[in-house]
Design a protein that fits this description.
Blueprint lengths: L8 E5 L4 H11 L3 E6 L19 H6 L3 E6 L4 H12 L7 E4 L9 H5 L6 E6 L9 H7 L21 H24 L3 E6 H11 L2 H8 L14 E6 L5 E6 L2 H10 L3 H11 L7 H6 L1 H13 L3 H10 L3 E4 L3 H7 L1 H4 L4 E5 L5 E5 L23 H9 L3 H9 L3 E2 L5
Parallel strand pairs: 1-2, 1-4, 2-3, 4-5, 5-6
Antiparallel strand pairs: 3-12, 7-8, 8-9, 10-11
Helix pairs in contact: 1-6, 6-7
């Protein structure tokens, strides 16, 4: 947690990954984020992974540092309250993040009637408003057909929702740009971040679109081999599996030196009239021969012998391990200042990260856990909408708002 965005107030009405990830990042940078949920929770309130009691670790993780308000959005009065909250907050308020449809009671036009300088960031599936999620967008841009073993005869999905995460980060950055523009001009605007457009732009920005357009064919699968350079998983003589990468000249020469492959590599270069050190593309073209040499060198040594040698020579490598193994032994998790072990609303204590970047001259604050559902309903309605205790009690009594989770 940092205090860089102190004073900025963001209202969120969203679920699942992209929009909550956006506002989580803003909260970790110091913004006051208020999440509005339906009474009893949005569709992601019980999203897996969950505890034995059914508490969502997923929900806890994506809603760190946010305040929580519970409102019955099915009722006309509840929807009116959500609209008022979306536009509330003075000069540093009026920032609203949602993945609700572009039409309806949370449309930009409806909200702009209440506040002309509103900044509304809307995460969408497709740009035309039709439904899509990370996994359906991913298959549409062809990624599963590039993923997996070379001999796979079906698409291979991945477990990381990359388009959701990029959409959240893109939305967070776009909000800061819109806030800056509003400070300069006083004008609000709606920001739309469709997952489909984000995925299409990304594959184009990485050169993938140009590749298939110019070549008039799809890239085949290459398994775990690093496309366009040298890299793959290899196994030591004792069965330890490593990912080894030779992307740069220095990285490649470090591999050759560590495995004492100077002579066989020089022979291969002489036979084919090539120099692998200066051309990563050649290392990929001759990957079958080079991988065979590295396989032999790796199989001839144990992990205990190889590890210090690889580290001494600055080889770019990483041992394969499960997340459970990493969580117990890897410095990424066990000795990393971005993490603090805290108790969460589920009742479990486990490592919780703050913002992953560091800022010189800024003191890192400990992470703030997710708030129990509805725990800030009274405070927010009182502070932002100036409702009296009696008015809030009547709303709660009629089921329009809730101050605590209702299972």
């Amino acid at each position: 947690m940092y205090k860089l965005l102190s004073g900025l107030r963001v209202i969120e009405a969203a679920s699942f990954v992209a929009a909550p990830y956006c506002t989580m990042m803003l909260a970790q940078l110091g913004a006051e984020v208020i999440r509005i949920d339906p009474i009893g929770g949005a569709p992601d309130y019980r999203r897996w992974p969950v505890s034995a009691q059914g508490d969502s670790f997923y929900w806890e993780a994506l809603n760190k540092g946010k305040k929580s308000v519970s409102i019955d959005m099915r009722s006309a009065q509840g929807r009116e309250l959500v609209q008022k909250l979306a536009v509330a907050g003075g000069e540093e308020g009026g920032v609203f993040v949602t993945n609700f449809p572009a039409t309806g009671f949370l449309s930009y036009d409806a909200l702009r009637e209440l506040r002309a300088d509103l900044i509304c960031a809307r995460i969408m599936g497709w740009a035309d408003g039709s439904q899509a999620v990370d996994y359906t967008v991913n298959c549409a841009v062809g990624m599963p057909n590039m993923t997996g073993p070379a001999d796979a005869d079906t698409p291979v999905n991945h477990v990381l929702p990359i388009w959701d995460l990029l959409a959240g980060a893109t939305a967070a950055m776009s909000i800061q740009a819109a806030v800056q523009r509003r400070r300069e001009t006083g004008a609000g605007q709606e920001l739309r971040v469709p997952l489909g457009d984000l995925a299409a732009a990304t594959v184009a920005n990485l050169g993938n679109l140009a590749e298939v357009t110019v070549n008039d064919s799809d890239r085949p699968r290459y398994g775990n081999s690093l496309f366009g350079a040298f890299g793959r998983d290899f196994v030591t003589g004792c069965g330890k599996r490593l990912m080894i990468v030779g992307l740069t000249r220095k990285q490649w020469l470090a591999i050759v030196s560590s495995l004492q492959l100077e002579m066989p590599v020089a022979t291969l270069e002489a036979d084919h009239g090539v120099q692998f050190a200066d051309d990563p593309g050649l290392r990929f073209e001759y990957r079958v021969q080079l991988e065979a040499l590295v396989e032999q060198g790796m199989a001839a040594e144990t992990w205990e012998v190889l590890e210090p040698r690889l580290r001494h020579n600055a080889v770019c490598f990483g041992p394969y391990q499960t997340l459970h193994e990493a969580s117990r032994h890897d410095p990424l998790f066990t000795d990393n200042p971005i993490f603090s072990t805290v108790q969460n609303p589920s009742g479990y204590s486990y490592p919780v990260p703050g913002f992953p970047a560091s800022f010189s001259g800024e003191e890192r604050q400990p992470p703030v856990v997710a708030s129990p559902l509805g725990s800030h309903t009274h405070e927010v309605l009182s502070t932002l909408l100036d409702l009296s205790d009696g008015e809030i009690s009547r709303l709660e009594g009629s089921g329009i708002v809730a101050a605590a989770v209702q299972s």
